[in-house]
Amino acid sequence: MAAVFGFCGICSTSDVLIINPRLPAHWKQIALPLVFRGRKLRIQCSPESVQIKLDDDLNASVEVKVAGRVHTLPPKGD
Length: 78
What we know:
By secondary structure, the chain is mainly beta. The chain has one helix spanning 2-8, and strands at residues 10-12, 16-19, 30-36, 39-45, 50-54, 62-66, 69-73. Helix content is 9%, strand content 46%.
């Protein structure tokens, strides 16, 4: 899993999930499930984009930082 996290550039601070993908040139994309602060996420990284979806029904938002910009994922259903 460490290699996958490395290619996706995944790390975290106390409150924010950080994603800075560094995929090998011949990879089209990578997708993985991740639990962050008790929240189930589905992450898909490609050379052009990062998609993150909440995969649970908990009523709390999640902050993620992608390529230096912070985004707030609202609870599922909002």
